[in-house]
Structures are given as C-alpha cells and as structure tokens.
C-alpha cells in the first residue's frame, strides 16, 4: 500500500532548503526505498509556512528511509533552517486518481 508523509514547517530560508534537498537527491540517486514523489505546498495565509508531501511505495520503505543516516543528516540540516518545530502526519493512501 502506498504511504504518504506530510511534513509541515516554517522557514524564511526556502532556497537554502531546496539546495540541501538537491544535493541529497544527487548523492542518493538510484537508491531504492526513498520517496517516489515529492510535492511542496506554500500556505497562502502564512507566507513562511510550507507542507512537504512525500510519497513512498510502502510504509516499510518510508521507515527504512527515515532510519537511514543520510536522511537523519538531511533532517538535521533542514531543521536548522526551519522556524520552530516541524509536524509530521503519516498516511496510508486509500485512493489516488487523476481527475481530468
């Protein structure tokens, strides 16, 4: 079953975060078990609040990814660029479809 993690955070340093994410993606290209899709949302009512939506093939893949030392290092780097605490919401995907 597909699994999605939603990470809520605030920052005024989004460009620096994006640079860290690009470097992480380059170092981990081709590595199995990581996110299959990523979506970044910006809150229209709070211009420094964002939601990162990460899709994984399974909950187990997401948990292995979370335990990876490289992921831990990235989370620490991104946390240093955040304002306040991040929030995590873990979701099993029950339905996903294109609506065109």
Structure description:
- By secondary structure, the protein is of the alpha+beta class.
- The chain is 35% helix and 32% strand.
- It contains three helices and four strands.
- It has a four-stranded antiparallel sheet.
- β2 and β3 form a beta hairpin.
- α1 (14-27) runs antiparallel to α3 (69-80).
- The radius of gyration is 14 Å and the shape is globular.
- The two termini are 24 Å apart.
Distance between the termini: 24 Å
Uncertain runs are none
| Sequence of strands across the biggest β-sheet | 2-3-1-4
Question: What percent of residues are in strands?
Answer: 25-35%
List the helices and strands and how they pair.
Layout: E1 3-10, H1 14-27, E2 37-42, E3 49-56, H2 59-67, H3 69-80, E4 83-92
Which properties best describe this structure?
100 residues, four-stranded antiparallel β-sheet, alpha+beta
